[in-house]
């Protein structure tokens, strides 16, 4: 190398080393502050409430507001999530139940929200995620609730109707599907494994790029990756987490037909989240059987100036041809306008259940 260049690089590298030392000292100082917070909560009988979703959301939004680059907000948010995750885990890592196995998009959502220091507890079904949190075997659960191309996840909605758990957070995950295999060319692929939903999301790409190659539906994308990792000629469609877990090279990336394919997940816990300043409230309601009943249910929201961002109907299951409505509105249940709207809804609805108020997802 050029001697002058080496000298300049040496100066910059010395600066980086000095900054790294400062970062390390500050990170440990932050960790000690987090321990102090835990000690204060313990003295006041709130030792179990070490994780406050509203506080985390406020921190991340403030960091994004302060960020002047060159690092993008996404990178800064990832870094600070991991810092908070590591600080929370000093006393006792949070147990997070999710729809497994390891290597699924649900795992990616859990890690995106709680960081890598959390204790991941994969479950076989969405029902098991609810039971694990209800029984106290995990502090929180992460379950899919809707996909931008496939629609609502009915089982999650049905379980929310009868569960005592609260929605205390949401995660929005951009879904990238990758074709992965030990083979090094498309011509060597003789079969493709994936979950039925992922096969549907990549239908057109498969028709164009692998016409005639058998598509085999399996229980999860992680299982597809496992099979493709040991079978000659096999490929899997799965996400980045499965590729890393099974050390399976990505042959073609981002093969999903819909470029904006996104899945939304709920974070479930046994406590409410406080106001963060940018929140949603989810609820279930049913209308009395009379003309204009649904219009009358929605009228209190408009009257109070509360915006509705989602309306989903589901069979009530208790009676034939009766329905319940799942609704997302903007704002926290403790805000005056939302409180007014919910009081009017309670007087009008045949049934009303507040599923929780929680911070809007921070990207």
Automatic annotation (TrEMBL):
Protein origin, superkingdom: Bacteria
Pfam entry (one): ACT
Entry GO CC: cytoplasm
EC number per UniProt: 4.2.1.51, 5.4.99.5
Domain Chorismate mutase: 3-95
The entry's keywords: Amino-acid biosynthesis, Aromatic amino acid biosynthesis, Cytoplasm, Isomerase, Lyase, Multifunctional enzyme, Phenylalanine biosynthesis
Limits of the Prephenate dehydratase domain: 95-270
Protein location: Cytoplasm
Protein's recorded name: Bifunctional chorismate mutase/prephenate dehydratase
């Amino acid at each position: 190398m050029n001697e002058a260049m080496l000298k300049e690089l040496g100066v910059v590298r010395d600066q980086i080393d000095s900054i790294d030392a400062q970062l390390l000292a500050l990170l440990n100082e932050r960790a000690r502050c987090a321990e102090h917070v835990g000690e204060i909560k313990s003295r006041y009988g709130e030792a179990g409430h070490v994780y406050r979703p509203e506080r985390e959301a406020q921190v991340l939004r403030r960091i994004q507001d302060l960020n002047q680059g060159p690092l993008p907000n996404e990178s800064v948010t990832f870094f600070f999530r991991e810092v908070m995750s590591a600080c929370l885990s000093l006393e006792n890592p949070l147990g997070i139940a999710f729809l497994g196995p390891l290597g699924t998009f649900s795992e990616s959502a859990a890690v995106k929200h709680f960081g890598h220091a959390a204790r991941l507890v994969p479950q076989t079904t969405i029902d098991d995620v609810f039971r694990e949190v209800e029984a106290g075997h995990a502090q929180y659960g992460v379950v899919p609730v809707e996909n931008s191309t496939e629609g609502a996840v009915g089982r999650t909605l049905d379980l929310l109707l009868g569960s005592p758990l609260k929605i205390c957070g949401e995660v929005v995950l951009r879904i990238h599907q990758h074709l992965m295999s030990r083979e090094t060319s498309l011509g060597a692929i003789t079969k493709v494994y994936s979950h039925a939903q992922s096969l549907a999301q990549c239908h057109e790409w498969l028709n164009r790029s692998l016409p005639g190659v058998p598509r085999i539906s399996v229980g999860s994308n992680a299982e597809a990756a496992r099979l493709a990792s040991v079978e000659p000629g096999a490929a899997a469609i799965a996400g980045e987490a499965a590729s890393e877990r099974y050390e399976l090279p990505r042959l073609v990336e981002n093969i999903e037909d819909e470029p904006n394919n996104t899945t939304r997940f709920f974070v479930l816990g046994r406590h409410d989240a406080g106001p963060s300043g940018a929140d949603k409230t989810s609820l279930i309601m049913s209308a009395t059987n009379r003309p204009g009943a649904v219009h009358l249910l929605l009228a209190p929201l408009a009257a109070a100036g509360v915006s509705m961002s989602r309306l989903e109907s589901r069979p009530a299951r208790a009676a034939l041809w009766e329905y319940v409505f799942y609704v997302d509105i903007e704002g926290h249940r403790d805000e005056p306008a939302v409180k007014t709207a919910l009081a009017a809804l309670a007087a009008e609805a045949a049934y009303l259940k507040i599923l929780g108020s929680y911070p809007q997802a921070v990207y």
